[in-house]
Amino acid sequence: MTRSDPQPHYSERLGVPAAYWGIALFFGLSFVTAVTFMLGELILLVSTVATVGLIAWTLLAWGSLRITVDADGVRVGPSLLEWRYIGTVAVADRAVKARVLARDDAFLGLRPYVTGLVLIGVIDGADPHLCWLVSSRNPDELVRAIEDNRPSGVAEPAEHSRLDSGE
Length: 167
Description:
Elements: E1 10-13, H1 18-36, H2 41-62, E2 66-70, E3 73-76, E4 79-82, E5 86-91, H3 94-101, E6 107-109, E7 117-122, E8 131-135, H4 139-148
Parallel strand pairs: 6-8
Antiparallel strand pairs: 1-2, 2-3, 3-4, 5-7, 7-8
Helix pairs in contact: 1-2
């Protein structure tokens, strides 16, 4: 993996909103208190610390999804879609989301607390993924970053993804 440009052109982290933290802590601590209250203070304290740790670990891991557009292509978490395989890119609406979710061959980088969606077509016939459906707080900016940073040798593809062709 060679990186000619170390600076990403676009970067976004889909962190979990504060409301999710509040809800998770409220229900987690309510349950732990109700279950362990009668078992003694030590068990209550240990289970409370363990519950807070588990909730924090879960929400931090879930909210660590990073989307970047760089010299290599588009990254969603640890996955990379190289420039030569990126097809048509567009902001997705509910109808497109429903159509993609009805299939089992799409790469999904979704978070329920982010409403914006971007559809990235895949033009590699050997790739098991039809397309990438990615959550984004700034879907228009992500689409613009992908379109504006396509390498000059990789123009807007004449070949459409398999989703565009109705497969």
